[in-house]
Write a structure and sequence with these properties.
Oligomer: single chain
Shape: elongated
Distance between the termini: 135 Å
CATH topology of the largest domain: Immunoglobulin-like
CATH class of the largest domain: Mainly Beta
Length: about 350
């Protein structure tokens, strides 16, 4: 609710108020009825001798000076078109209030209290609004759709904000406002004003879109951007577009990320190749072992298979005379060959 009040304060202004440390307006919105008496408050925050001026600004018009008062002056000076019978200034060392008696519908506007040094510094302003049943009747006939809802940007980017106005009946009395609200600021900042409906791009007979292009050059341009429509004394608000500034990616981070990705790919490839290589060697070794079990080697086979040959020679008649009692003897030659071993021959000679 407090945000709505601050928005209402800024909607009917085309100026860019500078918030002064000298003057302060505590009332952002004051709602009155026709014929009431109202006091618009302005507090003086520091001792000074410079003039204080009250300004009135209605939608689509330049600000008008209402009255000016100096610290040492006893009587304020009222400017043209403002009757001193209805307007008065209540001032002392701590305040400079503007009083309006018997208010009329023409008094509905934004009122600023300004302190003039070398230039004029404004307080936040007070919006004087009127109660009326026509506002409730009009509420259901017009609606706003603001997009995008959120937009991340980098420094130097340009964003285009869009605000679509949907209405049941054609109307030419539309004033569109754009403003920015920062969480660190107490009062929204007016950015741009469309005072005429011909600045709207018609999408259909009952729909038109207002656009605002904004260059985001620094963190000061971030925040929530709102659009608002003022027509037939009714203020309608958009849902807002939040602009967030994101830091650009450091090229070093990109390079390190690419190198890290390459390292991961290389390590993964090496792991896969090592696994396949080990699996291949294990499979080959197992195949050789199976082959040896099924077909023993020729060396082992030859070691078992030996050739044995024996020759038996019977001695013939020997001229020598046998001694008495000796029996004839036979000579037996035997040989064992191992074909698998070169020159490995065992020869046995026995006399039988």
């Amino acid at each position: 609710m407090m945000m709505i009040m601050w928005i209402s304060v800024m909607l009917l202004s085309e100026t860019y108020p500078t918030h002064s440390k000298v003057v302060h307006q505590p009332d952002s919105v004051m709602i009155v009825s026709v014929g009431d008496n109202v006091t618009l408050r302005c507090f003086i925050l520091m001792d000074h001798s410079d003039p204080i001026t009250w300004y009135k600004q209605t939608s689509g018009h330049q600000p008008q000076a209402v009255a000016m008062v100096q610290k040492l002056a006893k009587t304020p000076h009222f400017f043209d078109n403002f009757e001193s019978s209805r307007f008065s200034i209540d001032t002392d060392t701590e305040k400079c209030n503007l009083k309006i008696s018997n208010v009329t519908s023409s008094d509905e506007a934004m009122y600023y209290c300004g302190w003039r040094k070398y230039e004029t510094y404004f307080a936040g302003g007070t919006y004087l609004a009127f109660e009326g049943e026509h506002n409730h009747r009009y509420e259901s006939k017009v609606s706003l759709l603001q997009h995008p809802v959120s937009e991340p940007v980098q420094s130097g980017d340009t964003v285009t904000l869009r605000c679509s106005v949907l209405y049941e009946h054609s109307t030419t009395n539309i004033s569109m406002f754009w403003f920015r609200s920062d969480s660190g600021e107490s009062v929204p900042e007016i950015l741009y004003t469309h005072n005429h409906s011909n600045q709207c791009e018609p999408d259909s007979t009952r729909n038109c879109t207002f656009k605002l292009s904004k260059n985001i050059s620094s963190q000061m341009d971030t925040g929530t951007y709102y659009c608002a429509v003022v027509t037939c004394r009714k203020i309608l608000f958009g849902n807002g577009t939040k602009i967030n500034m994101v830091k650009p990616v450091d090229p070093l981070v990109i390079i390190l990320g690419v190198l890290l990705g390459i390292c991961v790919v290389v390590i993964t490839a090496q792991a896969i190749l090592s696994f396949k290589k080990e699996r291949y060697y294990n499979s080959k070794e197992k195949s050789l072992q199976d082959t040896e079990k099924e077909h023993p080697s020729s060396q082992d086979h030859d070691a078992v298979t030996l050739s044995y040959a024996a020759l038996h020679f019977k001695e013939g008649n020997n001229k020598r005379v046998r001694r008495k009692g000796q029996t004839p003897q036979d000579s037996v030659y035997s040989q064992i060959n191992n074909p698998s071993v070169t020159d490995h021959t065992v020869t046995e000679y026995r006399r039988v």
